[in-house]
Amino acid sequence: MAQFIAQNMAPIMFASLVVVLLLGYPVAFSLAAVGLFYFIIGVELAPLSNGTINLTWNLLDALPDRVFGVMNNDTLLAIPFFTFMGLILERSGMAEDLLDTIGQLFGPVRGGLAYAVIFVGALLAATTGVVAASVISMGLISLPIMLRYGYDRRLATGVIAASGTLAQIIPPSLVLIIMADQLGRSVGDMYKGAMIPGLVLSAIYAGYVFLITIVKPDAAPALPKEARTLGSGVASLLLVIVAAAGVFYAASLWIKSIHPDMDADNNAVWSASIAILFSYVLALVNQKLKLGMLSHLASQVVIVLVPPLALIFLVLGTIFVGIATPTEGGAMGALGALILAISKRKLNLTLLKQAMDTTAKLSSFVVFILLGARVFSLTFYGVNGHTWVEHMLTSLPGGQVGFLLVVNLFVFVLAFFLDFFELAFIIIPLLGPAAEKLGIDLIWFGIILGVNMQTSFMHPPFGFALFYLRSVAPKSEYIDRVTNKLMAPITTGQIYMGAIPFVVIQVIMVGLVILIPSMVMVYKSGGVHLDQKQMEQQLKEIAPPAGDDAPPPLKF
Fold first, then answer.
1. Geometric angle at alpha carbon 96, from 93 and 97, rounded to 5°
2. Phi and psi at residue 322, in whole multiples of 5°?
3. Dihedral class, residue 223 (left if φ above 0, else alpha if ψ from -120 to 50, else beta)
4. Which residues are within 8 A (CB) of 439 and not within 5 positions of it... i.e. 6 or more apart?
């Protein structure tokens, strides 16, 4: 029995971890406890393992170095910065302004409020990067309005929960930072690779709403005229867009004339910044001086949209063109969020304290899980667990396709029980080497798994996005404050049923990313990317042979 355990330590250790996690123990302590427990067993059983266990008590001396390695990881500094930025923006009233204004912009069409939720969800994802903040904000603001005007409850809850989870895949997503760190790839490349899949997923959500409005028009009615208090004015908004496009073109020509050596990406960022600033000033002057050039709705849309767009350009634009690292971009984003909160007169000591407290808790949560993962991996690698996993996955039939199918099915099932932090820290380090050995681009692989792990927020009955929405959705009958009608509550079953179509859409999106890798591979268009391992291999191949076959030394 002891010999069997010794020779199969890796699968037994992994199965034990899954069992402990399913029992509900905290992830960080489960990882560390399982790692230390099997380290002790491994040292004792090493003589019976026929060389498959390489554990000695001296290996414990490596633990402090692994802990300090986590603390010295500059990439992880981006997590508290982006978390703080998201919390400040969420509490500054930006989401409320966006949902109210964009809701009225899309209001005249069937499903307009649902389109507005998807649009604002994508925008909040690109500014906050926090799923909980997006779902709770939209649940508090949009859900009562959608119920007031007769939206199907399953569609309303599903679209809010799904749109909130866009923060998982659209940069500056926290999971993409962790994914890049675990796969040993650039966060900037991971952000570039995720942008198009995130936008495509948003478009598919909108396509599903459009399909519902055709098949079942009563499920998503248009906003009645009396509810559109900002009036109309799509034509004047189009005028602003055309004018901004003209300013963008003129600015790009001007920048090119004074800086002919500037690359296209930098030129585009500066030109877009000038165009956005022009639009904001035009709308603000028009509204303050009542010039009448633009409708009230158009002015309000521009004034509400420009601050988050400017923040997106400040953070993601500088990262994409290489001006700033993700950590520096996060720091600028946090500063920009504070400036926006001050401009809205929402920043106070209470808000600042709450944001800092939540940021410290989340950052500590991430670091503790990572430290536990380091303890677990020390033992797992000592029992050649990485070799076992790599051999098992690379020997699957079907090559890359078979590997991707099995891995995605495995992650999809685990997402029923584990959240994305746990999946990223436990599963990704085991899957990454096998994917690389099969010749799979790790950025592409990371985006595929990122979209897949997004389902962990939407899986009934354990999806966190569903829990967030349940916490703010009405649990009992209530009187609507506008119509004074008695409204029925939202049941948990309605929330679960509303989530299922969007989980299916997310699975379809995983398939699309696998079938159309060019959506992700745009990250390579930013310049020359050198593969360090491939370079080292090539150097070995051209290096002169050693020993007796070595050529004679040159004589001068």
1. 85
2. 85, 10
3. beta
4. 400
Task: Name the H helices within 399-490.
Answer: 399-414, 420-426, 428-437, 442-453, 464-472
**pLDDT at residue 512 in the model:** 93
Burial category of 253 from C-beta neighbours within 10 Å (exposed 0-12, middle 13-18, buried 19 and up): exposed
Number of H helices, E strands in the chain: 26, 2
HSE at residue 99, side-chain half, CA atoms within 13 A, is 27
| Closest by Cα among 404, 406, 405 to 435 | 404
Q: What letter represents residue 503's amino acid? A: V
343, exposed or middle or buried, with CB in 10 Å at 0-12, 13-18, 19+?
exposed
Q: Give the sign of the dihedral formed by CA 253, CA 255, CA 261, CA 262.
A: negative
Q: In whole angstroms, give the CA distance from residue 555 to residue 142.
A: 82
Instruction: Pull the structure tokens for residue 414.
Output: 């685990």
Q: Band of the pLDDT at 554, cuts 50, 70, 90?
A: very low
Comparing CA positions, the residue from 14, 7, 12, 8 lying closest to residue 429 is 14
> Distance (Å, rounded) from C-alpha 292 to C-alpha 280?
15
Residue indicated by tokens 């208090």? 229
How far is Cα 429 from Cα 449, in angstroms, rounded to an integer? Answer: 12
Report the amino acid identity of residue 462.
F
pLDDT of residue 525: 66
Of the two residues 354 and 75, the one the predictor is more confident about is 354
Exposure letters 258-267 (e unless 16+ CB within 10 A, then b): eeeeeeebbb
Question: What is the C-alpha separation between 81 and 70, in angstroms, rounded?
Answer: 17
CA distance 398 to 419: 29
CA distance 43 to 196: 48
Q: Distance between CA 310 and CA 340 in Å, rounded?
A: 10
What's the pLDDT band for 506 if we cut at 50, 70, 90?
very high
Q: What are phi and psi of 438, to 5 degrees?
A: -85, 0
Give the pLDDT score at 154. Answer: 92
Task: Report residue 431 as tokens.
Answer: 């899957």
Q: Which positions ≥6 away from 167 have C-beta within 8 Å?
A: 121, 124, 125, 128, 129, 130, 131, 133, 134, 173
Does this model's pTM top 0.90? My answer is: no
Give CA–CA dist 466/459, Å, rounded: 8
Tokens found for residue 370: 């990572």
**CA distance linking residue 163 with residue 201, whole number of Å:** 10
Highest mean pLDDT: which of 13-27, 121-135, 486-500? 486-500
Per-residue b or e along 309-335, where b marks 16 or more CB atoms closer than 10 Å to that residue's CB: bbbbbbbbbbbbbeebbbbbbbbbbbe
